[in-house]
Request: fold
Amino acid sequence: MPLFIIQGDITRSDCDAIVNAANNSLLGGGGVDGAIHRAAGPELLNECRTLHGCDTGEAKITGAYNLDAKYVIHTVGPIWRGGNRGEEELLRSCYRNSLKLAVEHECKSVAFPMISAGVYGYPFDEALEVAVSEISSFLNSSQDDLTVYITIFSKRDYKISRELFDDVNKYVKDRMVFKEHRFMCMGMNAAADACAADSSVEEFVKTHIDESFSRMLLRLIDEKGMTDVECYKKANIDRKLFSKIRSNESYHPKKTTVLGFAIALKLTLDETDELLMKAGYALSDSNCGDLVVEYFLNNRIYDINKINEVLFAMDQELIGEYYPA
Ligand code: ADP
Reply:
């Protein structure tokens, strides 16, 4: 289910399928196309010759030969001609058709390059927006277990909305100070509230302190009226990992996994602290990634992909997780 943005050379990916930003001839070219053909070896070109080209927006699949991947999915992105010539719909269909082929071939993981964002001139931030929204809507409506990577070749190319980035960056810089851990106060406030509400300390301990991370998560999903599937998809977490958490009451999640659930469940900052505490974590004012998440929670922006775009820009670990095959 999950979608991650990573930096690297797609030819080194060990995903089941890698996607090639090809041209209509499918007979090789420059950029990522050239790199994939060089790494796969001449047999790839031989197989491509049998395909008789590919229309823009369509996709075709071949073997991957000397690459670690099992398949190469060749798709042809639109050439950018100013944005009014159907470029966006064509680019969306590149992602859709490539993902359909991957699922038909039972792939569990797929790596995409930034189609059209090189020589074909599609503005990077707009191409990223299309990639992220099209891949996530495919994953949200899919029953298949698929992990997707958007591979950014050079961090220098990576551009996201300047306004959002500047805003988060300012928040992080302003807050990057060592402060007492808010979670300690939060725990005490919660205890005080519980007492004020006339429930016994025993009861408070039973429902809050004794409750494991897994129990608390399942309780919150119920309280928010969500289904498990809705929740783990919004958390950028795959089905297998979610069922591990569900079935193992003492499951110890990664911090980024807990944060994924906090976003999916639209928790407040205090609720997030409580959920983190169940797994032995806390948000820290001296950790850049934590402050990025804090910014989004404070502003009630619960779009996991937007958060991950910013975390990636700031070289921080992304939110979400999948269970390794
Ligand atoms: P297009 O013609 O579709 O624009 P390009 O190959 O020119 O395709 O570029 C598409 C994107 O792929 C660009 O962002 C470029 O930086 C990136 N790219 C180039 N080589 C690689 C590689 N080896 N791995 C991943 N991405 C790459």
About this structure: The pocket of adenosine-5'-diphosphate is lined by residues 9-11, 21, 31-33, 35, 77, 113-120, 151, 153-154, 157 (CB under 6 Å). The beta strands are 3-7, 17-22, 59-63, 71-76, 109-112, 147-152. The chain has two domains: 3-157, 162-313. Confidence is low (pLDDT under 50) at residues 180-197.
